[in-house]
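Sequence design from tokenized structure. All designs in this work follow the same two-part layout: the structure record, then the generated sequence. An example of the structure record is given first.
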């Protein structure tokens, strides 16, 4: 990648900002976050707090399991991005493929959370 491209990538990354649907603060790369269909990006911690409000008698086990899957995938993304900078160029593409699998797992977990909340007739506003 030429230095011109790296400068462009840096600028584009600075423009990529997401807001947590729950708290309204920035979602920053390196934080554990997920995506809920129809809602947007959410901090994992905000999701736990919101679920405690929505289920005052206890969050159902299946919902907790889905959120834990999201948290595990999110943590995997964070760690594998660190590995991307540690491996040599000849192996970077392989590590990126691994990261994309974690990102897919995160998306699937977000969809599962959404389905479970619908089943319990609960909505995150």
């Amino acid at each position: 990648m030429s230095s011109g491209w790296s400068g462009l990538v840096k600028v584009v990354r600075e423009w990529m900002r997401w807001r947590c649907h729950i708290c309204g603060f920035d979602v920053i790369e390196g934080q554990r976050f997920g995506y809920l269909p129809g809602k947007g990006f959410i901090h994992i911690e905000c999701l736990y707090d919101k679920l405690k409000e929505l289920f005052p008698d206890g969050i159902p086990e299946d919902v907790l399991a889905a959120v834990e899957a999201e948290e595990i995938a999110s943590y995997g993304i964070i760690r594998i991005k660190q590995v991307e900078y540690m491996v040599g160029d000849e192996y970077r593409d392989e590590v990126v493929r691994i990261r994309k699998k974690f990102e897919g797992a995160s998306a699937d977990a977000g969809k599962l959370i959404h389905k479970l909340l619908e089943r319990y007739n609960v909505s995150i506003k």
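The CA atoms of residues 51 and 57 lie 11 Å apart. We note this feature because it recurs in several other targets discussed in the main text.
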